UniProtKB/TrEMBL annotation:
Name of this chain's protein: DUF971 family protein
Molecular functions (GO terms): metal ion binding
InterPro entries per UniProt: GBBH-like_N, GBBH-like_N_sf
Classification via Pfam families: GBBH-like_N
Keywords associated with the record: Iron, Metal-binding
Keyword Glycoprotein: no
Length: 113
C-alpha cells in the first residue's frame, strides 16, 4: 500500500457518467459512475465484512441500466471521499488506495478492452 498516494484533482461529470482522478504520481483514472456505485465499499453493498475490499471491474465496462449521478462528494480526512448518490445512498467511504486499486484503465486492467 502506498501511504503517499493521493489525488491532485477529482472531477465529476454527471452528464458523461464519469469521475476522473489525477493522482500525485502522474496517473490518470476515469471511473464510470455506474461502476463506482456498483463497487460501493460499504458493508451493506459488499454483503458483509467478509467481502470488504473486494470489487468487480467488469461494472466499469457495461452499459448502465439506469442513470447514476453524484449529488455531492466530501473528503474524509486525508485518505478517502464519501460519495452522495442520487439514489439516496451515501454509506460508502472510497479510500484513495481502493480507488486506485480498482482503476479500470488499460495500464491497470489490461485484460479489459
Amino acid at each position: 500500500m502506498n501511504n503517499d498516494l493521493r489525488p491532485t484533482s477529482i472531477e465529476v461529470s454527471n452528464s458523461e457518467g464519469v469521475l476522473a482522478i489525477d493522482w500525485n504520481d502522474g496517473h490518470h483514472s476515469e471511473y464510470t459512475l455506474f461502476g463506482l456505485r456498483k463497487n460501493c465499499p460499504c458493508v451493506m453493498c459488499r454483503g458483509g465484512h467478509g467481502n470488504m475490499n473486494t470489487f468487480d471491474r467488469s461494472y466499469f465496462f457495461v452499459e448502465p441500466p439506469r442513470h447514476i449521478e453524484i449529488e455531492d462528494i466530501r473528503q474524509v480526512g486525508n485518505h478517502a471521499i464519501k460519495i452522495f448518490w442520487n439514489d439516496g445512498h451515501n454509506n460508502g467511504m472510497y479510500q484513495w488506495q481502493t480507488l486506485r486499486d480498482m482503476c479500470p484503465c488499460e495500464a491497470c486492467c489490461p485484460q479489459q478492452e
